[in-house]
Every structure is written in structure tokens, then in C-alpha cells.
Amino acid sequence: VQDTGGSSAVSKCSAAARGYIQDRFLRLLVGRRRRRAPLIHRGYYIRARAVDHCVQDFLLRTQSCPRTQILSLGAGFDSLYFRLKDMGLLHHTVVYEVDFPNVVCQKATLIKRMKELSALVGDTGGEGLGASVLSGEDYKLLGVDLSELTELERALEEAGLDSDIPTLFIAEVVLTYMENSRSDALIQWAAERFPQSCFLLYEQVHPEDPFGRVMQQHFLQLNSALHSLAQYSDCEAQQRRFLGKGWTECSVMDMNEFFTCCVPGDEQQRVQALEPFDEYEEWHLKCSHYFVLAASKGMEPSWTPLSPSVTVPHGAGPVGVAGSVPAAVCARLSGVPGLRRYGHHSVLIKPNVILTTGGFGEEDGQHCRLRNFHMLSKEAGSWKAGCMTKKNPDKTWGERLYHTVSCLSDSLALVVGGRTSPSSAGLGMLYLKFLKTCDASDPDNIAVELVSLQPAAEPATLRWRHSTTEVTFKGEQYLFVYGGRSALEPVLGDWCFLHTPELSNTVIAVEGPVPESRHSHSACSWQGGVLIAGGLGAAEQPLGSVFLLRKLEHGFQWQTVETHPPLIPRYSHTAHVHEGKLLLVGGVWFHASSVPGITVIDLMTGLCLDYVIDVEHLEWPLMLHNHSSVFLPNEKELLVIGGGGNCFSFGTHLNPEPVLLSLTSILPSH
């Protein structure tokens, strides 16, 4: 548990060094320095922002009080006192910090050693008395085990904590490491003993969904289990907990809600532009698994973060479920190497033959950008794996993620876009030439030749997280390349028509209101045009819109497809059309109460139904984002390949094997 505190201090320090948070004191309190990944920086930014939001609110509301106090529980190497003192905000406030005795001894030694810190604390005459390790006029550092409430109460009394003045309690990922009976007792003690007080809690939620299971497993492996989750698994349960333990007001929100509603738009943009970033799914999943709670008693209601002008676009409340879809592993594909990947692309190159390319995943026991191509073929009713051999060097391929592959014929496919690193330009187009016909009876016998292209349309295709869809116009075949992002533009809303076979960029008239820019959306061919659904928009907010690029005589026209109930905004899903129904598979949304399963939109009526995926027969968490899926209309099955991602600091999760989803119950036979 103490190690988690040290690790989070290093992460906060790294976030400060990159400009996410303004804090010049962290580097003095953290011995070792490590540069963390952008995803970690964002995670610690939102945590620091939420805590500061509540602290500033408390200080503002109590500024007319003659005396106030802040009690930071399990403070570790936090720099809160030094920042507040430096900003001149502690004229009548004393800060108490409590942690394990050996942690506070280390911190006290650091403070005494650093002039910049010791000067702010000032004269420390009172240390060595009981649990008090360092005692200045407005700063008290106490070494006590928080789970020993009697001992804690005695130590705080000795150090001068006054139960009659306004008090702010801070518990930043602390109480969850204690047994629930002990953390409950502490919450109740604070409410009973301090008639004018606020309590700020920042912790994890949603342990049972796929990301939550990976998160729980991580903390179990660290031998620091998250005890709160068993009893208080969501925000509503935490709210009931505090109201039941004597607090009179309590507001709570997850970090997606907090970022959307409590961080001003210009500040959101500043943070989003600090570093090249392309891990939106993991960022939003991390934010949906942490919450900030503010409870109060005997004071004005704790901060109400939602101003009347802000509405949360992803409303609370459960998702209406129309039924369930069973998931099963493909028996013969268990343990096949090369299919544990994400950010890849899978395409049916011939009936019963699937080609998977690119992405990030596992190769020879290492996690890396994948160069190998993978072939699946179906024979005698079951799938088997085979690898494709490449006839020319790997450098042509460029280890790409988030590209598209479109089949132009039995022997030719086109790769469009993709990236290596999010800071580098998008990659160019490639032909994949299959040198033998794709004979399903002998999948191992296929070779592919990679041919680099430099057509006139090249600049328009240097993008990733886009879509490439086949359309027909005046009897001619085109590929419609739409949306995505590039190294310079975090989101694109433009498009181009590539005329096959020579791939020239052809101007075709498109009328109607242009959809808002998006990436990580889905696109399907339908009636000669294209259906676009969902995606991530300009403000990194999921979109719930569905558009049809409808074919007209003289060009195309954008039309909105109205859905009812409205489609829950999502992105990083896959999609297929079958007999007038649009199927959306998986993805990421802000509805923290559940994860997206399969949504069926009737394109005639607009009726939108959500189905959960029954994972009872899977022994591992099924993460349905950054996956690929292939629809098999004859069997009414979906084959899901890969998926997963880098789960914050909890490790990388790759779905270990392909999964078959049976759609017979939701696509009735005629």
C-alpha cells in the first residue's frame, strides 16, 4: 500500500514536469524521477484537478471563518500544504497530514533537508511528541495507522485538531485499502465529531466490467486489494454510504463527467494539446472507473459541480436492454499466436477467408507493433489459422495501426493510412497482391506482395482512425475515405472519392449539412452510399449521430438517420449492415453502468435496440474496443478478432482469442 503512494507521487511529478499541473514542490518531495506515458499524465492531471477543485471550493466558502483546518488522510508525499502556503491561502487554516509512521518520517527528513520546503513550514518546535513527527504553526505531520481509529483520534487531539471549526477531510485513494468496517467507521466518526465539515473522496468504481477486472487484478498482484469495491461498486452506492454514515449532503461524479462539466473548455484544449496522444479509449475507461465525491455536514451543500448551462450528454441511469447475445470462443483458435492485438484491421478477402493486418499486440512473447499478417479460413464448419508469407521486406508495411484494408478483387486489396507513432505523419497507401488465389482448402499456401503507391490522392489519405468504404456512382466503383485524424489535426471531417482501379482523387458533388468531424467511427456500404455512425468528435466527446451519404443521380447527399430512443454516443466500435439493419458492435461510451454490447438500428423505422453480450462462457474479460469484426450472413454470426488496449497503469489487456457472437435471436429468419 505504501508503494502505491510512492508510485503515484512519481507519476504526479512527471505530469508536473510536462506542464499538466503547476507544482514546483513535487520534485523536491519525490526522490526518483521517471517520465511516464501521456495516458498516465492525463490520469494524474484529472485526479489533481478534482482535488484542487474541492480544496479551493472549501477555502472560498470558509474565507470569512476565523479558523479552519484541512486533514489529509494517507497524504504520502503530497505537496498540497506547500502549494497552498506558497499561494498565500493558509492565513487562518492549519493542514494536518496523516500516514504510516515510516512514510511521514521520510517526508519530515526531506522537508528539513530542503530549504525551500523548511522555509515555508517555519519553526518546528513540537516534533517528537507522540505521533507528531513534524509540527509547524500551520502544518502538522503525524505518523499513525488510519485503520486504528482510537489511536488516530488521540494523536489528532494531541496535535491540536479542533472539532468545532470548519474541517475538510481529504482521502485520495486511501480508504479503499482498508477493511470496509474500518473505513466506514472513519467516515462516520468524521461526520459525528465534526459538526461543520466536508469530506473529499477520490477512488475506483465498477470492478466487474472488463476494465474493472483488469484494474482489480493489478491491485491484487501488488498485494493492495481494493476493499471498497465489493460493497460500494458504483457512484450511487458510495453516495448512499456517506448519507447513511451521518453526512447530510453528498454529490458524486465519475471523472468523465468531471472533465466534461468542471474543467473549462479552454483548459481542456490546453491539456489535450500538451503531448501527442492517441489512447482515447483507455483515457475514457480510466475516467469512468474513478470518481470524486464531496460530502458535507453543517455547511452549505458541498460543491455542486453542474452549473445550469452544462448538461451531461451521457445521462445517468441504466441502458435499456432488449436481450442478450451469446459469446463463445472458437475452439480451434485457442492459443493461436498473432491474434492477440488491437488497432488492427480484418477483412473478408473471399468467402470464409479472413485477412488480419497490423495493430499492436503480442509477438514472440513481446508487446510491439505487429508486422505479421494473419489468415483465418473456415473448413468443415470450423475456423483454422494460417500465416501469410510476405514476398518483400517489412519496411514497406511500416508497422501500422488504425489503417483500413479494402478488397478490390480476389487477388488485390488496398491499404489506406494508419500510423506508427501518434507524433509521426500518417502512412501512405499500399496494394496487397495475393499471389495465389485464396483457396480455402489450403490457406497456408498464400503469399502476398506489398506494392507502395504514390498516386495523386496520396495527401488526402495520410490519416488514421478513418474509414474507407466502397460506393458506386454512375456505374463506377469508388472508395470513400472519410474522417479520422492526423499528426497535425486531432480530428478530421473531410473526405475524398478514390476512383478504382487507378486511385485518382475524383471530385463528386456532395450536398446537405456536413456531419461534424470525427474519428474512430464506423462506416458501412449501403444502397450504393455509406452509413456513418458514432465516433469521437472535436472535443474528445463521443458522438451519437448516424448519417447516410445517399446516392443521387448527380452526386451524393448527407442525410441524418433519426434513431429512437437516441443512439447512446460511442466510438471505437465496428459495424455491419444486414437486411436493412445496422449492427454496431462494442465500442466505448460514457454510460458507466454497463459496457456497449450490440446495438441494432432498423434503418426503415429508426428503432434502436441495445443487446448485452453474454460472456458467461468466456474465462477472461472481453474488451470490445480497438477490435475487428467480420459478419458471416449465412450463419448469422459475428467473428470478433482481437481488441483491448493499454489499461492505464494496470497493464495491457489483449483479448486472448477470437470470439463468435451468435445473432440468430436478434436477426430473425424470414
TL;DR?
The chain is an alpha+beta fold. It folds into two domains: 1-297, 3-Layer(aba) Sandwich (Rossmann fold); 321-662, Kelch-type beta propeller (Neuraminidase), CATH 2.120.10. It is built from 14 helices and 39 strands.
Write the CATH fold name of the largest domain: Neuraminidase
Number of helical segments with 4 or more residues: 14
Give the total of beta strands: 39
Number of domains: 2
- Which strand order does the major sheet show? 3-4-2-1-5-6-8-7
Strand content: 25-35%
List the helices and strands and how they pair.
Blueprint: H1 2-17, H2 26-29, H3 38-61, E1 68-73, H4 80-86, E2 93-99, H5 101-113, H6 115-121, E3 132-135, E4 139-143, H7 149-159, E5 167-172, H8 180-193, E6 197-204, H9 210-221, H10 228-231, H11 235-244, E7 249-254, H12 255-262, H13 265-272, H14 280-288, E8 290-297, E9 323-329, E10 341-342, E11 345-350, E12 353-357, E13 360-363, E14 366-369, E15 374-379, E16 382-387, E17 389-390, E18 404-409, E19 412-416, E20 430-434, E21 447-452, E22 467-473, E23 476-482, E24 495-499, E25 504-506, E26 510-511, E27 522-526, E28 529-533, E29 546-551, E30 556-560, E31 574-578, E32 581-585, E33 598-602, E34 608-614, E35 628-632, E36 637-641, E37 644-646, E38 652-654, E39 659-662
Parallel strand pairs: 1-2, 1-5, 2-4, 5-6, 9-34, 17-21, 26-30
Antiparallel strand pairs: 3-4, 6-8, 7-8, 9-39, 10-13, 11-12, 12-15, 13-14, 15-16, 18-19, 19-20, 20-21, 22-23, 23-24, 24-25, 27-28, 28-29, 29-30, 31-32, 32-33, 33-34, 35-36, 36-39, 37-38
Helix pairs in contact: 1-3, 3-12, 3-14, 5-6
Family: Belongs to the methyltransferase superfamily. LCMT family.
Protein name: tRNA wybutosine-synthesizing protein 4
Organism: Serilophus lunatus
